[in-house]
Amino acid sequence: MPTGWQGGYGGWVRDPNVSRSVAGQLSPIRRAADLRRLRAERFDVLVIGGGVTGAGAALDAASRGLKVALVEARDLASGTSSRSSKLIHGGLRYLEQLEFHLVHEALTERGLLATRLAPHLVRPVPFLVPLPAGRGLRDVPARVFRRSYYGAGVAAYDAFAGLFGGGRGMPLHRHLTREGARRIFPSLRADALAGAIRYYDGQVDDARLVVTLARTAASLGATVVSSARAVGLIRQAREVTGVRVRDLEAPPGSPDAEFEVQARTVIAATGVWSDDMSRMLNDVGLRPGIRVRASKGVHLVVPRSAITGETGLILRTATSVLFVIPWGGHWIIGTTDTDWRLDRSHPAASARDIDYLLQQVNTVLDRPLTTADIEGVYAGLRPLLAGEADSTSKLSREHAVFEPMLGLLLVAGGKYTTYRVMASDVVDRAVRRLGGGRASRTADLPLLGADGYAALWRDRADLARRHGVPVGVVEHLLERYGNLTLDLLALVDAEPLLASPLAGAPEYLAAEVAYAARAEGALHLEDVLTRRTRISFETSHRGLESAEHAAELMGAVLGWDAATRAAEVEHYRARVEAERRSQLMPDDAGADAARLGVPDARGYAADRGGDDQAELRSTAR
């Protein structure tokens, strides 16, 4: 049974003497216990997919008192949900497209996250909307029109947030002159703007939010297992009754590597892999009525010193929008929006993608950026509901829920910000199938780390003094863990060496790596360097100088011997080198081929859009 839980009538009941943080630990011991539960129990809801939607669905279902399990083939947030623009936003450009319902929905969710659900993870970030400069007096009417047009849009954005935002959580917008804009963003070219409008949106570490969602679900009794791949559906007649799962951490040849999980309802929240679920149903002639296209979004990371500014930027391009986003000691520049039909597990950025982003951002900067400024690059895939549009930027950002077969629900589309709405919608369908139950409770359920966060932030100097660490360290931890910072400080108190900085990434503590393995479900070195921390794109060495130290810290928790530690470091090194090679390739095909030179750390072939899909079989009983 889960740590801190007791079996009893009506399911699991958390021991009142055990804290939420302890009950929600995704430790090695918890993984072993949860694997036993997967084999032995029948669940009300089994979620496939550990991205933001899947983790959100598991939390929603668990909060309603259902018996819930979640399986993820790789790591939590290892796909789209760790490779976004790191924004919780209402979609300012949707106002221009008159999609008011999308703006309303997203701003509501932004307000909830920033004020109630995850104030430790979602915080305001200011942006400038530069107003293009004109050419002499003849362009004065056009400049007036542009300021009025954009100003009305941003004012409407603020109004929507105030009316529907569930607690705004963000300051109001403000108009700036050219001089005012350049005072707060000196790197803007004076001849490129006539002024600007400053507004606010929300920023988040996307991977950390997903881990927090999964841990919050676990704290409510959900079984959460990563490195557990769904390889087939179990059916009785025309009803799905479970899933066949492969434990990718099991020793080669182990008879326990594959097993069946029984469930009354299966929810597939598989993002750009949604079509794989469709193929599982081919043998019974079903067409789920859902098609997902993958749109590649590439982001560049440059040091904060490369651009002088106090806010982010949002720029119009010929096909979409471009963000320049402050991210600690760095800037994130993105994104592209192009169709991707190659390997979905490890989308690769090409030289063409990088050149495009540099070209676009350099139109407004007084000192052009070059490839020499780039510290990191990452690429992700957005799951868009397919339509007839030629451009992925025109495909739907809305979500849909389908029930192609009794017992199987598919949820796809949507955007990161509205994960909770998607989760609520699909669990509502599951609850109706299961015969009634509570309505969604997640709008009022703070995530782990949120309770008491404001008080801890206010008293951070005292907290630092009590534990003998600098105030800056406590601030860093609070903004990543909220009240779970107390757990990390307890680790440091027990093992003072964990207070030392991580090699090659002094802004992170050694304790954070140990904690990732002890409590956050990290099983491999890349889980820590790419998702629990963001060292893989925040350092010019891309984590190579941190790998050995991190492997030593993880190994002490996970019981790695010297050979395992060396293998983890070597795999990570090969992964980084493959990504660097891919970014020198002129196009997607070359970049994809270069990236695929390294096998997945979890020991199976990368998904190639159908080449290895024979493995995804439907098992009739």
Q: What does this molecule look like?
A:
This protein is α+β, with helices and mostly antiparallel strands and 621 residues long. The chain contains 21 helices and 23 strands. The strands form 4 sheets. Strands 5, 6, 7, 8, 13, 14, 15, 16, 17 and 18 form a 10-stranded mixed β-sheet that branches. Strands 3, 4, 9, 10, 11, 12, 19, 20 and 23 form a 9-stranded mixed β-sheet that branches. The chain has a two-stranded antiparallel sheet with strand order 1-2. A hairpin with a 2-residue loop joins strand 10 and strand 11 (239-247). Helix 13 crosses helix 14 and helix 16 packs parallel to helix 19 (547-558). The longest helix is centred in the N-terminal third of the chain and has 25 residues, at 140-164. 53% of the residues are buried.
